[in-house]
Description:
elongated
Amino acid sequence: MYGKRRYPEIVFRPDRVEGQVAAVGVSTVQVHGIFAIHGAEHEITIPVRVDIAPGHWTATSQFAIPYVKWD
């Protein structure tokens, strides 16, 4: 529980997108930014799947955190 009180947030601050998002349909782009966890900041690039349809869009991502390397 100590870690949750000391470092209550995990934050991702994107700063750039690499790739193109199609006007309609599915695209995959790379989003680069700073990932802040346990009081430290790390650069990371994550793949993001973007699905654009008339009237709505969805962006999803899944990535591993190299926790041991960052510790």
